[in-house]
Design a protein that fits this description.
Layout (H helix, E strand, L loop, with lengths): L1 E2 L3 E2 L4 H13 L4 E3 L5 E2 L1 H16 L5 E3 L3 H9 L3 H5 L1
Parallel strand pairs: 1-3, 2-4, 3-5
Amino acid sequence: MFTVPARIRLDNAVAVKLQGLQALAQGETVFDLSQVQDVDSSALAVMLAWKRAALQRKIDLELLGRDGNLGSLAQLYGVQDFFYH
């Protein structure tokens, strides 16, 4: 399981995205988002990149613990269904 850092903002989004892509490349299919608290819209872009990479590899990526600030942000942008299914 890949534990996603507590903070995903513009200044560290690329690094977090790359960490997740590396985890996918190493066979991780479960990403734990329960520690994520400090986010901006770049967090959604990071998650979209992970989802795209998983789809390209025909991997079913499971995102756990999407509540809290990240869930609220996804709902605000109307993309919660994409992340939660």
